[in-house]
Amino acid sequence: GRVPVWPLWTILLLVRPLGSLGSPLCPREPFYFLIAIMKMLGNKNDGTLYTPDDLSVCPAETLGCFRLELSVIQFEEGPSLGIAVFRLQRLLDALGSRLWVTGQGPCPPCEGHPQRPVPLFLSKLLELLQGACAQHLPSA
């Protein structure tokens, strides 16, 4: 019983070109984990989380709010989602320190943001990350 090697090579060949597309400023990993969390949760979590609407005013602080609120999901959903959430939080930390400077002017506390259902919270985070990445991509 030898295991065929070709599926692994196929995956490596497919992953390799994609990897070179992501700019170092905007790695793809946060998106993978975020989308995985969204899929695992579906609509089964009916809680609400403080959801910032804008990354431009206080980028690092806003990312910090998302990171904090993700802990609530981690706490409520337990170990099944905990690892993915933890990895996403670490990636957000890294992004926050590399991508954005600390905001200009007064930054609202996390509790100052509107409360939204968990699926909306996650899709807002995805939208803001995509927007931030679009801004930081080198223009061709």
Automatic annotation (TrEMBL):
Keywords: Signal. It comes from the Eukaryota. Gene3D superfamilies: Interleukin-15/Interleukin-21 (1.20.1250.70). Residues 1-22 form the signal peptide. The keyword Translocase does not apply. The keyword Signal applies. This is Interleukin 15-like protein. The lineage of its organism: Eukaryota, Metazoa, Chordata, Craniata, Vertebrata.
